[in-house]
Amino acid sequence: MADPTQATPPKLLDVARQAARTRHLSRRTEASYVSWIRRYIFFHGKRHPSTMGAPDVAKFLSWLATERHVSASTQNQALSALLFLYKDVLHIEIGPVERVIRALVPKRLPIVLSRHEVQALLGCLDGVIWIISTLLYGGGLRLQECLELRVKDLDFDRSQIVIRRGKGQKDRVTILPSVVRQKLVAHLDWVRAQHAKDLESGLGRAVLPEALDRKYPGAATEWSWQFVFPAGRICRDPRWGPPSRYHLHESVVQRAIARAATAAGLTKRPVGPHTLRSVSA
Questions:
Q1: CA-to-CA separations, 59 to 35, 71, 95, 206, in angstroms, rounded
Q2: Is 264:129 a contact under the CB 8 Å cutoff?
Q3: If one looks up domain 115-277 in CATH, what number appears?
Q4: Is residue 154 classed as helix, strand or coil in its secondary structure?
């Protein structure tokens, strides 16, 4: 009979999640890595990864290219997840992964909208999505950078936006478009009122990056640390700590822009948030 006092060892995927958070990987990266690790295990008949090595990784990656026809970027993402598994979770050195059939890198031209087309697209948007889209277009922000903006990152006096931990984990400064200023101020007034109601309900907490919640225990409820574009619901997933209000999900913006492109009669496809950063003169 098993000893009831003996602690049950954590599951591999839970260990992987903890390792990802210890290394301050983003929520999206964590979810992606865990998904690839799970697929890798099922591909090999639920064998434990510790009993496998570089040849098994190569076989899985080649299968993705030849049978699943994934893109080169997707295959590279799977490789990164498995290298993370062996190096940072299992602490096993598997050596170089060789003889992988590489997915083809497609040669595609970016979708570039004219200024007239952008105006037509923005004309079919309103509210928060219009503000976000205008920031993407006028400030050159990536979607995730925009959604992760905190109140403190907006400098109305200098008409600047500070991007924290952008691509390559680098900070940068970009312009705050004047055309969005008035609506953005009104939006922040609404967000502040919502934050006040959350505080009255014993909530009002925003998810903080990395370990700042331990370094600054009270920062999570401060107005300056709140998301500029908060989600409509409180996140109560215990994996992310106490109940908190996260930022708006990127799929909300993606779907709205896709619908607006159809309504505007744009024939270029696909049109998404990233398209607004590529505009012809």
A1: 18, 16, 15, 42
A2: no
A3: 1.10.443
A4: strand
Q: What are 279's two structure tokens?
A: 């505009």
- Which of the 8 DSSP states describes residue 173? E
What is d(CA 20, CA 80) in angstroms, rounded to the nearest whole number? 12
pLDDT, averaged across the chain:
89
pTM to 2 decimal places: 0.74
Q: What are the domain boundaries of the chain? A: 12-89, 115-277
The correct answer on CATH 1.10.490.10 for the domain covering 12-89 is no
Say if residues 147 and 229 touch (Cβ distance below 8 Å).
Answer: yes
- The answer to whether residues 125 and 137 touch, using CB atoms and an 8 Å cutoff, is no
Secondary element (H or E) of residue 174: strand 172-175
Quickly tell me which residue has 């309900």 as its tokens.
Answer: 201
Q: What is the pLDDT of residues 188-236, one digit of tens each?
A: 999 999 999 999 999 998 888 766 777 777 888 999 999 999 999 988 8
Cβ-defined contacts of 245-253 (< 8 Å, 24+)? 245/198, 245/203, 245/204, 245/205, 245/206, 246/206, 246/207, 247/147, 247/148, 248/128, 248/132, 248/147, 250/143, 250/144, 250/147, 252/129, 253/129, 253/132, 253/133, 253/143, 253/147
From 125, 107, 46, select the one nearest 71 (Cα to Cα): 107
Q: Tell me whether residue 200 is exposed, middle or buried, using C-beta atoms within 10 angstroms of its C-beta: 0 to 12, 13 to 18, 19 or more.
A: exposed
The per-residue pLDDT for range 16-40, each reduced to its tens digit, is 999 998 887 878 889 999 999 999 9
Ramachandran class of 210: left when φ > 0, alpha when ψ lies in -120 to 50, beta otherwise: left
Collapse the DSSP code of 31 into the 3-class scheme (helix H, G, I; strand E, B; otherwise coil) and give the result.
helix
* Per-position DSSP letters for 266-281, written without gaps between them: --SS---GGGGG-B--
